[in-house]
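[Solved] Which block belongs to which protein?

Original post:
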Amino acid sequence: MPKRILTGTVTSDKTDKTVTVLVERKVKHPLYGKIIRRSKKYHAHDEENAFTVGDVVRIEETKPISKTKTWAVKDRVVSGGTQAIEADLDVEAASN
C-alpha cells in the first residue's frame, strides 16, 4: 500500500524534532453544494529541526514514531516565515 503524501503549512516548531503542519482541503457541502475548507493538524517528524513556521512542506505517512507522530517531513515546497523589513522613514517634526 502506498504511503500518503500531504502538503501543508508549518504552524509550530517549538517541540524538539517535531513540527505541527496544518493541512487544508476543500470539500463540497453535502446539502448546499458550496465549496468549504476543512483543515487538520498533523505532528510530523523533523530530525534536524530544519523547518520553521510559515514553510510549506510535504509530509509522508510513516510507522508510528510516538503517540501522536505518524508523519515525517519529506521536503520543503516553499520557504516562508516572517521576514524583517527595515523601514526607512524620515519623520520630521512639524515646527511651523
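(Second protein starts here: sequence line, then its C-alpha cells.)
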Amino acid sequence: MTRDAPGPAGLPLFGNLFDFGGGDRLTSMVRLRQQYGDIVRLRIMGRTLHIVSHPDDIKYVLQDNNRNYVKGRALGKAKVFLGEGLLTSEGELWRRQRRLAQPAFHRQHIERFAATMTDATADLLQRWEPLAKAGQPINVADQMMRLTLDIVSRTLFSTGLTAAEIDSVAAAMPFILRETDRRIRAPLEIREHLPLPSNRRFQTNLRTLDAIVYRIIADRRRLGGDRDDLLGLLMAARDEETGAAMDDKQLRDEAMTIFLAGHETTANNLAWTWTLLSQHPDGRRRLQAELDQVLRGRTPDAADMPRLIYTRMVLDESLRLYPPAWAIARQTTMPDQVGGYDIPANSGIIMSSYVVHRHPAFWCNAEAFDPERFAPERIKTQHRYAYFPFGGGPRLCIGNSFALMESALILAMISQRYDLNLWEGHPVVPETAFTLRPLQGVMVTLHVR
C-alpha cells in the first residue's frame, strides 16, 4: 500500500507554489515542518517535492542510498555558471574529478595557505585604521566578501587578481548568484530564454568571470613552471586510471566552483558571526580572552588551530544558526521510501540545514546563540546529521577544512584588534539566494580594543 507524506492541499495548477515559493522560504520551511512533520510532500506546477528534516532521513539520502539521489534539476541550472565542477557534476565524471582534486585539499597543502590568509587579513586591517579613527561605519559583509575573494584568488592563482579584476568579480558574482537562484525557483523555464535585460546582464557578467579565469589559465600554460597554488595542483593532477589531465574547460569549471565556494560561503559565515558577536558581548569577551591567552598578540597560524577551541565553537554556532549553504537539493532516480513514506522517481528532495539546525528535537533552545553546544565533550553526543553545514556523505564539501581554517584565522586577527558593533538602526535580514547572505549587508563601527 502506498503511503504519501503529509502536506498542504495546494491550489489547482499551481499546487503548493505559494506555500513554498514565496520570498521568505526559511520561515515557510520551518512552518511546514512544524505543521506536517519531518517529511512534507508538496506539488509545484506538476512536480513533486519533499522537504526532509529528520537527521536519520538526511543520512539515508546523502550517505546510505546516495547513488539514488542526484543533484538533478536544481543544481543543473547552476551549470550555466559553474559548468561541470565538483558542485554540479554527477556520476563517473564527478568521481574522476573528486579523485583529481582531492590531493589539492589535503591538510598539508591547506595549512601552507595559512600565511597567505593572514597576510591578506593584515592588509585589510591596515586599510581599516583610518576608518576606525574617523568612527566611520563599514559594511563588514562587503568587506568580508572582498577579503575572502582576495584570499581565494591568491591561493588559487598565487599572484592573485588585480584590483580591477577583484572589483569586476565582486560586482558580477552577487548578480549571477541571485539570477541562478531565481532560475532554480522559477516554475517555468521559458523566461531565461527570452531577450530580457536580466538575461543579457547575466551573460555579460558570466563573460567577465570567464575572461578572467581563462586568461589566468592561458598565462600559466604559456609561462609554464610549477606553482604551489590550487591551480598548479589541479593542472599537475593526473587520473590514476587513465593518466589524463584536466583540459582548460574542466580547469575553468573547477576554478569557478572554488571561486564560489572559496569566498562566498566563508564571507557569509563571517558576516553572520560578526552580527552574533555584536549581539552577544559575553561571547565576544570569552572569544577575546582565549585569543589573548593563546596568541598573546601575535599573528595566528595553522599550528594554533587545535588550541583555539572557543573560536571554533563560535564559528560552528554561527554556521548552525545561519548556514551559508542553507539547503541541499537532490532528485530521486528510482522510487524509494524515506522515513516510511513513498518517494516517487524524479521527486525533488530539499534538506535545509537552516531548518534542521533549529529542530527542537535535536537542539535545546534552538534559536539562541550558544557556542557551548559545540564544546568538545558535547559534540560526541550530537547526531551526525543534525548539523551539516558542509553537507555529508561522499559529496561532503571538499573545501571544508580550508573554509574553517580561513574563518578562524580571520576571526582571530580582527577580534584581537577590534570590537565590531552593529550600526544602530541598520536591519540585518537573511536573504535566501544561492547562499544565505545578509540582504542589506551588516553595517558596523570599529572600536579599537
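Accepted answer:
You had them paired correctly. Confirming on the second one: The domain at 17-448 is CATH 1.10.630.10 (Cytochrome p450).
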